[in-house]
Write the structure tokens for this entry.
Amino acid sequence: MSPLLRRVLMHPDRCFILLVALLGLLGCSRSTPAPPPNPTVAPDITVISPEQRSITWTIVVSGTTQAFEETALCARIPAYVRSIAEDPDKRNHPSYDRSIDIGSRVKGGQVLAELAAPELEEEQKQKAAFVRQVEAEIFQAQKALAVAEAAVAAAKAQAGQARAAASRAQALYDRWHAEMERINRLVASGLIDTQTRDETLHQFQAAEATRQEANAQVQSAEAAVARAIAERDKAAADIAAAQARKEVARAEERRLLALCNYCRLLAPYDGIITRRSVHPGDFVTPNQQQPLFTLSRIDPVRVVLQVPEADAGWIREGQRIHVTLPGDSASPRTAPVIRTAWSLQTPSRTLRVELDLPNADGQVRPGMYVSARIPVELPPHWSVPSAAIARIQDEPVMYLAENGKAVRVAVQLHRGDGRYIQILRYRRSSATEWSPITGQERIAIPATALTDGQALP
């Protein structure tokens, strides 16, 4: 007997404790027998035939929301920022935070900022003054035309008087010419003396000189008329030239006025300011890269979907699409297809599809993730239950019931809705050509419970 066992037997209480411990260890080492496994119930094998069935297939794509319109508002002229307009919704804000900023809702035509271009403003005033000067010149030219027309009338009257005097001188000349011929005949006949003939000759010569003077006055008066007419035409041409200068001056004034109007930065439509990069006192130029403000129209919002190439042919304008947005209490929303790009995007081979989602409450924000479900009603085609299709090495197969056995064939699938799958054709393992579906085939299901050559009940 070993010394250890001798010491234990000398103390009966220790013997009892050791016996209890051994019994406990023996009890723990026993294992409870496991219950018998449940018997496996073999699935029922049935045989069906394909049937013509229309399937509602759902295309699931993702997309994003965009502002319906987004405009970068830039400076059109070099200028200083005089002020940023106040936001009416910020009346209760601190004085330093009352101007239009990101998040401000603005109306179309509302002033966003005032720019200052002193040189341009002075130039516009100069052009306006030049327009007034030209208008004064036109008025002066019109008065000169009136004077010229009066001068023409006076010259014509004087010409008339000169012609009348010429007629009177001609008549006097004709009288003395006739008288001179009569006196010459009397002198030749010796009835009167030569002294009388000399007196008549002097009168005739005086009448001839008077006639010449009158004719010269007529020519002078007619020249005066021509000069007056020329001056009148010149006055009219001066008016036309002044009016042309006025149009040029007004066009230049309008150009400067249009440039000055660029000093007021206006919102082109109702929307929300999403970016602001300008402060009072900044110097801005037309060619700076960053716009002063970015304005976004958010009602409606534009939902942009990217539909894969394989599904693009099913998309039609007006087609209803169910749109789900995370965190949107109104989801899912339904909206029609408004527009498509028609052509596919080259890198991704997807079709851009756009919906216009009403957003009067402003719950939908640009940039949100969108999940869209597009139901497509497929035309009737030969279909089988989904259980009739199995996959072997990721290739779809089905089993034909022939001569009491399951014959595995490869199958080409079209679309399915989870319950039924449209099938196109099948091919036996020993064949190289595909056989079309005729509807006379007998197909065993479920395919997952079958093997090639298995006997069918």
In short: The first strand starts at residue 46 and ends at 48.
